[in-house]
Please model this.
Amino acid sequence: MKVGGRGVPADFRFATVRRLLCIPRVVSCVVACAKPGPANPRRDPSRMLTRAGRRAALLLAAAAGVSGPAALTRLDPDTAVYASASPPLRQFVSAAAEGLRSGACLFSPWLLPSPSQGLPILNTFASASISPANVSEQGSGGSSGDSRCCPGCLGRNSIAKAASAVGPAVVNISCMQDTHGWVQEQSIGSGTIIDPDGTILTCAHVVADFQSSKSVARGKVSVTLQDGREFEGVILNADRHSDIAVVKIKSKTPLPAARLGSSSRLQPGDWVVALGCPLSLQNTVTAGIVSCVDRKSSDLGLGGLRREYLQTDCAINQGNSGGPLVNLDGEIIGVNVMKVWNADGLSFAVPIDSVVKIIDNFKKNGRVVRPWLGLKMLDLNPMIIAQLKERSSTFPDVRKGVFVPMVTPASAAEQAGFRPGDVVVEFGGKPVGSIKEIIDIMGDKAGVPFKVLVKRANNVTVTLTVIPEEADASR
Model:
């Protein structure tokens, strides 16, 4: 509990107790203990009453601050105290304050007790539902000491809880090609059971080779669960560009499954946990933070279609591919796919929101359908707009949009009439300010016409109709 404010008597002694509420935030717990000052035979009785009232006000205000706004309806500006506390201390202080509330004269800080009545502060601990010793015990270990002040905040056991929630659903996957009993190649990786029926999410490069546009199984897919059970898996679908695959195993009993979360709410600095089987070491857990939520494939020197990754500093090694990236709520928010070999702390995962769309495409089309326009695009922001206006005074007056620096010859975009220098401000009847928004609007609608509003030099506005093609698998 941290107490601060005006009107705290100078003759109060404050004992500071360190309590770990969340890492890396260490909060000082300040407990106010009433202690009379040095004996003074000339002390004014009215001054003593004021001090007594302030002592009562301090505890009441602390209780109000930690138990809720309804605990105290009025605050004297001279005795205003603000407090925050972990759940065990909140319960302790609130219960201790009940002794003060039981007397009508102590319910409000401006009603002072008589000198003979004294202050029941020290005796109120006997009426508390937990004792000071129990507060220490509750904060010393176990799940009860794992208080989190807010979702996403790291407590003592937060990583352990997240790992234990997902761990039983994490599997080890190995694929072996053998000829006449001789093993020619072995691929190892991880996966996560996302449905009790045995549906497993993993990486495509772990279980499949790609010849032209078709995926070919690397060999016999062996799946080992955390509890040691082994199954033979069947590849249902695999997508080369996203590196996502779905494998199915059959079990007579329901299997442990992990929950899917959302990657859209992630922010740089959020804590995440990576689980998997690096080098076939089952049940391996590492932790770190989100370094970037929208790392572009072009930033990594990867060609082909545009992709975005979550970048983290979790330790990822060979065999982690396909394993889950988990938030502190024990939800999958990404699928680990790769790391930078010559650097530490640079790991990448496919966001779970993208994975969900891929799975939906698998169910609907049997493959991932990606519309292709043939445009090179750039998200605009105020700084880029100002720079482009400096280069050309004819650049259109826009606040946001998507800039088109290049149009691919013979593409759907060229046939629709796009020109280099266009700024897309509406797509499919919706205002757009990023490439991601355009991709989301198109979805899997290849061959479907879209109305596009573009602005050109000197603020000329043009409406175009473009029919996206399905992206070539080799592109």
User: Anything to note?
Assistant: The longest strand covers residues 182-195.
